[in-house]
Amino acid sequence: MSIDLSALGIEELQTVIADAQRLIKTKKKSHLKNARSQLEKVAADYGFTLEELVSGKTNEDSAPAKVRKPVEIRYRNPNDEQETWTGRGKQPRWLAAALASGKSLADFLV
User: Fold this and answer.
1) d(CA 43, CA 46)
2) How far apart are CA 72 and CA 85, in angstroms?
3) 3-class state of residue 82 by DSSP
4) What is the pTM of this model?
5) Do 79 and 50 share a structural domain?
């Protein structure tokens, strides 16, 4: 298909280009939508969702998230009942200061 554009002026050519670019964008969207619907149909025919088909994993493959039980409090500040420590991680300042002053860790056991 050959269209003779030599008779058109610059503004008319720019209009043709802009129209062609809009048409290309519209057709790409249409092709993409059509391709997606075809892929969803193929996935459904095999009993999967499109996301499962693309990722290669089914919903059964994913392990359930482990629910962690909260750690029990082992140590409590006798001066402030709100200040506690589970014994994990860095010692809180109140406990480190008390231990530095000569107290024992056993003095703070719950």
Assistant:
1) 5
2) 9
3) strand
4) 0.46
5) no
Domain count for the chain: 2
Q: Which residues pair with 77 in a beta bridge?
A: 80
Structure tokens at 63: 């392990």
What is the extent of the structural domain holding 97?
Answer: 75-108
Task: Enter the tokens of residue 87.
Answer: 């014994």
Q: Which helix (H) or strand (E) holds 98?
A: helix 93-100
pLDDT in tens, the chain (110 residues): 788 989 999 999 999 999 999 999 999 999 999 999 999 999 999 988 888 888 877 666 666 778 889 999 999 999 899 999 999 999 999 999 999 999 999 999 98
Q: What is the dihedral of CA 94, 99, 105, 110, to 10 degrees?
A: -20
Q: Three-class SS of residue 94?
A: helix
3-state helix, strand, coil in the chain (%, to 5): 50, 10, 40
A 10 A CB-CB count for 95 gives: 21
